[in-house]
Design goal:
Elements: H1 4-12, H2 22-31, E1 35-41, E2 49-56, E3 62-70, H3 74-88, E4 92-95, H4 100-107, H5 122-133, E5 142-144, H6 150-156, E6 161-163, E7 169-173, H7 179-191, E8 194-195, E9 198-199, H8 203-207, E10 214-216, H9 222-236, E11 245-250, E12 253-257
Parallel strand pairs: 1-4, 3-5
Antiparallel strand pairs: 1-2, 2-3, 6-7, 8-9, 10-12, 11-12
Helix pairs in contact: 1-2, 5-7
């Protein structure tokens, strides 16, 4: 958890003797090649809406800049999203793909790009976040701005796996205080995998080791299916037919042909 001055110093690698405003910091980050994205978890019944604003720099470090979490009507959430977009100029917004009607309403605003053509994968999203919070080497590349992320800080402090009647734990979290984490997962699943048809360095690549042709299958075998699914979605934007099949293994990796 960092303040504005500390985020500035992490981003630039230089100490400063003044306290920057949020707008000045965001301008600096844009000029330094940082891209901003939003994840949106839609409200359901008594559940709040959640909007997370995430910056990704050229070193693939993550900056959680703002988290909105309130039980409000759709129109108020959309207004808040518009205000945040004016500040951060989102490159893309990733809402819950299950809420098609609400996403279609958001899509009517031509000022932003709504990207909801992806499949939710809870365990993968959690893994991606965990890798950024602390890598296998102990490196931290996830920083949250303390002034504007209180909702996230409250939720992550109680984020835990669902306990089953037999005392064991499920592979998914308890669904009470998970709204900002859900929104964050939507960003991570998209940004740290495939973006605009191009492969990016990702948490999976750093920790597990894959590129566009390889995916290590152990100890995270569930990633194989997810990988195939994501490639399918991207390639289908440009072609009418595509097959993505595992063709064998080499050095602990599964080799795919596209």
């Amino acid at each position: 958890i960092k303040n504005l001055k500390q985020i500035w110093e992490i981003f630039t690698g230089k100490e400063i003797n003044f306290n920057p405003t949020l707008q000045r910091l965001v301008t600096l980050m844009h000029e330094g090649g940082c891209a901003f994205y939003a994840g949106v978890d839609h409200s359901g019944g008594a559940s709040p809406y959640a909007i997370v604003t995430v910056g990704i720099d050229k070193q693939n470090r993550v900056y959680l800049m703002n988290v909105f979490g309130k039980l409000v009507e759709f129109e108020e959430m959309e207004l808040e999203l518009a205000k945040l977009h004016e500040i951060f100029k989102y490159k893309a917004i990733f809402p819950d793909p299950a809420a098609k009607d609400k996403n279609d309403r958001l899509r009517k605003n031509k000022k932003w790009r709504i990207k909801d053509k992806f499949s939710k994968h809870i365990s993968l999203g959690i893994d991606l976040i965990r890798f950024k919070l602390q890598s296998a080497a102990g490196d931290v590349s996830f920083f949250a701005l303390d002034e504007d992320t209180a909702f996230f800080q409250d939720e992550i402090s109680e984020y835990h796996l669902k306990e089953l009647p037999d005392g064991k734990y499920a592979d998914e979290p308890e669904g009470e205080k998970d709204h900002s984490l859900d929104a964050l997962r939507y960003v991570f699943q998209n940004i740290f995998t495939i973006q605009d048809g191009e492969w990016k360095v990702s948490a999976i690549q750093e920790e597990i080791g894959f590129d566009a042709e390889k995916l290590q299958s152990d100890p995270n075998a569930h990633l194989n299916y997810w990988f195939k699914q994501q490639v399918q979605l991207i390639v289908e934007e440009k072609t009418t037919e595509v097959t993505v099949n595992p063709t064998g293994t080499q050095d602990g990796y599964t080799i795919f042909s596209i």
